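Anyone have tokens for CoA transferase? Sequence:
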Amino acid sequence: MGNDSTRYPLEGVRVLELGNYIAAPTAGRMLADFGAEVIKVERPGTGDELRGWRLHGGSTSMFFHTINRNKKSVVLDLRSDEGRATVLELVRHCDVVLENFRPGTLEKWGLGPEALEAANPDVVLARISGFGQTGPLSQQPGFAAVAEAMGGMRELVGEADRPPSRVGVSIGDSIAGLHAAFGIVVSLLERRSGRGTGTPLADRVVDIALHEAVFSMMESLVPDHLAHGVRRQRVGGRMEGIAPTNAYPCGDGSSVVIAGNGDSIFRRYMQAIGRPDLAEDPALATNAGRWARRDELDRAIGDWTSARSRDDVLAALDEAGVPAGPIYTAADICEDEQYRARDMIQDMRVDTGGDEPVDVGFPGVVPVIGRTSLPLRTPGPELGEHTAEVLGSLLVTTSENTEERK
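Reply: yep, here.
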């Protein structure tokens, strides 16, 4: 937990989060991690559906606690006149509105850019959706799975002889959230400079499309296609055109990743595994040559790693100056000294379904500013936990008993 001397760069910024699931809440989490006051508006009764995702015990999932830490929860019914009026009153006191409804939903509720600007001419509006606020697909619902497919990522994930795979997390949502948080901070800087003064809110909306956020991470996928007619292929644990870099099994049942694809690194690498013949082979002096013989190289490396424990493999490669690392499980991460040294696992007391709350480690704040990760303050809030506090402090009156909102 932070103390009075902890410096949070976004302290004093207030964000109204109108979002469910992962993308918008991820953006809100990043802003909250760095000190912004993030007021999360949730629907009565159920709240954000993420509360029940991967729920292994208790009433609130660790997923929700992770994505919505450091925030405040206010319950409002945006489908009611009173709920929408309350949102507009809150907007008067906020620097940012963050939402991830289907395009047109806010407008249908009377909460579109014009209404928000009338409530607060300086407000920053960030909108996350499947395909953005404009274009022929803008009205379609969007999910991370579809965004990853249409953004070009799915085509490259998995083995060449199998259908495309996922990476194991909702990476499309998270990437969109990162872009949204960046866009919000850029807009706040522009507002501070005064350069955006007089520009209508509709013309300065931070507009994040899930599939575009994924596409932005795809390196030279399209330029290579247009310039050279190249179609990237799925190559499993490898990276196309670069060798040898892959995951390899060890003799103790674990695995390691070894990135020995630099020209000088490759020579040291092959010496370390007892293959000086490969180290000195002129046909393997560059990545192009090594990629052509990638199967041969992977067999030689796999034979070497399979005869040794993970610790022995990593020690030998470290001595040779070859980049390598273990493939971690969650348990490995929790035990790792490097994570702990930078406060990347921080304990917060949460309900896990037992008789009493317990301390659970959560991911720290990234990026590090200074020496270690900023301290986490609170886990994801209980549904409506801050309704009375927020409405009572920011609004002149509240006409409804806050208990009836829950």
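The radius of gyration is 25 Å.
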